[in-house]
Amino acid sequence: MVTAVTSFGRSGTSDWLVQRVSGVILLAYFLFIGSNLIGGVDYIAWKALFAHTWVKVFSLMALLSLAAHAWIGIWVVLTDYLTERLMGAKGNVLRVALQLLVMVTIFVYVVWGVQILWGY
Amino acid sequence: MANMRTISFDGVIVGGGGAGMRAALQLAQSGYKTAVISKVFPTRSHTVSAQGGITCAIASADPQDDWRWHMYDTVKGSDYIGDQDAIEYMCSVGPEAVFELEHMGLPFSRTEEGRIYQRPFGGQSKNFGEGGQAARTCAAADRTGHALLHTLYQGNMKNNTVFFNEWYATDIVKNQDGAVVGVIAICMETGETVYVKSKATVFATGGAGRIYASTTNAHINTGDGIGMALRAGFPVQDIEMWQFHPTGIHGAGVLVTEGCRGEGGYLVNKDGERFMERYAPNAKDLAGRDVVARSMVMEILEGRGCGPEGDHVYLKLDHLGEEVLHSRLPGICELSETFAHANPVHEPVPVVPTCHYMMGGIPTNVHGQALTVDASGNDVVIPGLYACGEVACVSVHGANRLGGNSLLDLVVFGRASGLFIEKALREGIEMRDASDSDIEQAMSRLDKLNNSTGGEKVADLRKELQTTMQNHFGVFRNEKFMQEGIQKLADLRGRIENAALEDKSQAFNTARIEALELHNLFEVAEATAIAAEERKESRGAHARDDYQDRDDENWLCHSMYFPGEKRVGKRAVNFAPKTVDTFQPKTRTY
Amino acid sequence: MLKVSIYRYNPEVDDKPYMQDFDFDTQGKDLMVLDVLEQLKSQDTTITYRRSCREGVCGSDGLNMNGKNGLACITPLSATVKGNKLVLRPLPGLPVIRDLIVDMSMFYAQYEKVQPYLQNNSPAPAIERLQSPEDRAKLDGLYECILCACCSTSCPSFWWNPDRFIGPAGLLQSYRFLADSRDTATEERLAKLDDPFSVFRCHGIQNCVNVCPKGLNPTRAIGHIRNMLLSRAT
């Protein structure tokens, strides 16, 4: 049986809200990055941009939003298709395995992202 | 029978429509082990098709309204063969029963004051016929039956009633004392047959409008309760009394509520004349249903019908305006567009009188106890058997039912049956168990069908039966035609008993169910035919060319059809209400 | 001649389902799909389907007709037949019992889950509870549901999680009681809907709205529930 233990906020309402808010943050971030890229950008300008603390914080916000957004979205997809009802017990094994994989991947990306933002 | 399962309950209700579910609710609330056997999921029962409303003096539209006025209308509407003690009970208890429904959540339409909306219906008056048209029918738009049925199902769900949905009861099990101790039932999904044993068996199986070719009734209205009762040797009462609703959509038979006329619609003939002004100068289109239906047939017979064949009349609604039609009659607008391709906002709806309601049925007292009469004509209770709703004949409708009284009937008497059974169970019911041979007896019809070979097709036989009833026992009846009809039915009996069942499989075998239903249809049709031929007068819905007048001297009584000897007897009408004076028979005009 | 292709499966006889073709003479009439089935059944009594009122109010004969869910009794051939062909299948996503009859117990279980009955903790008055016409109007478009399951069985979220997602029909009824001025159990009702499955598996694709034979709008009702949940949570 599919349960909500592995869902992001364990509440549909909070997941839904997180999904929307993170979506808005991501949209704002991509517009911001897009507007900086649009006229072409060199290394100096790019480094200067990321020298601002607020840009780093904004980027971190976007990174965490992406992580949450991706987790909720993929969790929904996995609990739709990989279930005991559709596949028997192997549905549960497959789903949990994939969830673990996705979780580790997202975690690695978040850590790597933080390293990039504050490491250089 | 050794391998057949027995399931036991304190009370078993056969039928999951309004009456059955109201009775079940009462019993379930009392804590007794209660089950409902329904051949369809309960919200698919025919109560769902009731449109206009539930007539009851709740004094919303008129604060002065009085249940005694409603009683007067109902007695008059019945053409004086409704039992006045039962009508008194129904009209006086009605408001309480309707308020209970509202408390359960029924989404009634509302007045500006926030009370239940009431609309005018046919045959309604104020002040015992002296005060003009009343508005007494409580409505949830034009979907009152749907709202009521769903509310009752929800109420039963809340009270944990056990439902055997898509189970079909085939026959009554009687013990050696002649008491009813349950029914044989088939689980349609698996085909398993079981004996459902019960201390109280309540028949709430509804009507049998499918005995006619043209009917407003659902496919499932096959008179199963009547069929079972007749096969068990029990009599039925006033079974010749069939209501033809004035406004069935021409061609399709689908009902258009009387509420259309209550809201101000009216009937016109091909000349555009509002012809009801001639037949019923006071009530006009809101005269009793029998009166309106006959007037329509007269118009058609005299060549003033509408359409290329001149075989229907028009119901004019466009003058009410789009807003009223869409707020008060939204379902009608849908049905009219779907089945008549007419948008009532712009065009009239083609309508024709269509078989609608069985006034007769299993005779009962106000507690729902089924009755028979002994040799000296006294009422005798049939132990273990109860009936409520359309299958029962309490009798509150007599020879003609008023619009909106059927929903009240089923709620009030479903409730009354439940209350009485609860009391009886508390006092203790002792009945001897059915023996193996009793159960075998009840199984015999099903066994015969399951082992049948050859025979004619069920669909063909059903069609022949329906056509016979339509042609020989319609709105107008006469001796010669009815005699011919009875002959045709006599020929049909053997053929129907031996109808073919080619498909003997177990899983959801609807062919088997349809064959069993056909047996029931036939029992109802035959009883109707013989009782109709016997009643030599015109009263209410029973209109004869050869006996055009009401004959109070000989026929101010119920007819009782006894299936064993196919004999029609008489039973006295009750003229002794408890709290009001008797309404004496008068000439009935509208 | 109309080609009618019907999904057949009798568990006692057939190893697996198959499509059976019939030639049907409409005699130029624009019959309802149910009329066609009735006529075919009068010839071949083994064809199995549910039907009752034949006027679109009982909800028995929900079918998949040429790929779209609807009620056979109020769907005229002219509205569904394409290229002279009518393909009739059971409602998708539910187990088939026989031919066009599906096992609806999961559908009903979701309906029961929303406690579709009025709950009011104050003592009932001697007459009806009063309700203004404006408050009553909030129930329009909700109470008319006939439980035919056309909507829920056209919803992919219900296909994948019929045991956890309440589905459009159940949620429409859930909102019917949330919106009723006479019901006092709003908080308890909302608390039961807050998990990630019951309501939030709706992704708003509106298949339910597209097929509802009564013209109701479950997606809108689900939106209202979501708003109630959000204002309760924030």
Molecular structure report:
- The complex is a heterotrimer of chains A (120), B (590) and C (234).
- Chain A has a single domain, classed as Fumarate reductase/succinate dehydrogenase, transmembrane subunit (3 helical TM bundles of succinate and fumarate reductases).
- In chain A, 81% of the residues lie in helices and 0% in strands.
- Chain A has five helices and no strands.
- The mean pLDDT of chain A is 92.
- Chain B is α/β, with parallel strands linked by helices.
- In chain B, 35% of the residues lie in helices and 21% in strands.
- In chain B, the strands form six sheets. In chain B, strands 1, 2, 6, 7, 8, 9, 16 and 17 form an eight-stranded mixed sheet that branches.
- Chain B is globular, with a radius of gyration of 23 Å.
- Chain C has 234 residues and is of the alpha+beta class.
- Chain C has nine helices and seven strands, in the order E-E-H-E-E-H-E-E-E-H-H-H-H-H-H-H.
- In chain C, the strands form two sheets. Chain C has a five-stranded mixed sheet, covered by helices on one side. Chain C has a two-stranded antiparallel ribbon with strand order 6-7.
- In chain C, strand 6 (96-98) and strand 7 (101-102) form a beta hairpin.
- The longest helix of chain C is centred in the last third of the chain and has 16 residues, at 218-233.
- Chain C is elongated and about 60 Å long.
- Chains B and C meet through helix 3, helix 4, helix 10, helix 13 and helix 15 of B and helix 4 of C.
